[in-house]
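Hi everyone, sorry if this is the wrong subforum. Our group has a chain we'd like a structural model of before ordering constructs, and none of us has done structure prediction before. Sequence below.
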Amino acid sequence: MRNLWLVTRREFLSRIRSGAFIFSTLIMVIVVFAATAIPLLMGGSTDPLSVIVLDRTGRLLPPLQEAVAAVPSGREVVLVPGEGDEQSLIAQARAQDAVLLIIEGAYPDALHARLLYNSMGDLTDSYLVTEPLTQLVRAARLDQRGLPQEVALEVLQPLTLETLQLKSAQEGSSDQFVGTLFLALGAIMSVYMISMMNSQFVFQGVLEEKVSRVVEVMAAAVRPWEMMLGKILGLGLLGIIQYAAMMAAWLGGSLLTVRSMGVPLGGLTPGIALLIAAFVVLAYAMNASVLAALGATVSRMEDSQTVVSPVLIVMMLPMFLLTPVMTDPNGTLATVLSFVPIWAPIVMLLRVMMTDVPALQVALSLALLAATTAVLWWAGGRIYRAALLSFGTRPTLKQLWQYLREG
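Answer:
Right subforum, don't worry. Here is the predicted structure as tokens:
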């Protein structure tokens, strides 16, 4: 056990002082913060939407100003009457970074409107003006056909529709769903990055020691299983530090975003917290045992990518399937993927946080993951022991099978 502690301590102290660890931690923090703050960064301008209105009918600007003012929105809209010819107003809109609305034609039947904008944000928010304008024109056309304008406006009022998500026999508003979505994305991002990046550190560490022949010196005093387990434990402790940093970044980005959107942040129950911890530990143990074994089979740096790339691609697959899983978390695709051990930490966690999943499915997914981790740990240990001091061979499936039998 003393050797195990020494290896664990060495891995922890040597890595935590390295530039690679610091840089990777910063990258993780930035990625998690950016992932949770994307809606805030893409939320558009909070400055008033300035609209220059050239009303050639002479009848629409005053009622349009009243209609726009009556529409609740997160962005103030300022309507300014346009004076002068069209070209001068276009130049004015460009100089003031404003929107130009030109209304012309016979009112109301042959009316034509043009909207000239500078930015996509202004185009996105232009509905704050165009929808009231459309309602006014429709009401005027109905009034022309005998229906009083105030009645027409009342008839044309859109339906008030409230959307609710059914979960755990409770109704959740769409705002609560958005908050839960931020929570789920932060959780799966942390599980993915901790299990993947720290596992790659294990692979890199084993490979460097073997290529530099340091492992030959260590093998004289430390047993192979102590080297493998010590390396995984030492880098796992680093993962705890990175996890704390990522959670701080996720919490900061999520709070900023949900506050800007005016929605509540989803709650984290003790059961979900324990599930996240279990998936982090098991996913890291599984991935690290596989990559440690593969690292021991490589004798040359140039062979490393050939060996590890296919495995990493398989591990990354669920990240490309987040959209279909979120769209139908209890569908066939999501359910099947959540029982595949290598993908369960991402898919099952996302399902549990987005909808109700039977407890039996969660237990079965964890059991399969734990059993697979144990088998891969055993197999990885045998391959590690057999391949650690083997040089000059290329890592093939046949060679891996031979290492497994000899180990």
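For your construct planning: Residues 168-175 have pLDDT under 50 and may be disordered. The beta strands are 49-55, 77-81, 99-106, 110-116, 164-167, 170-173.
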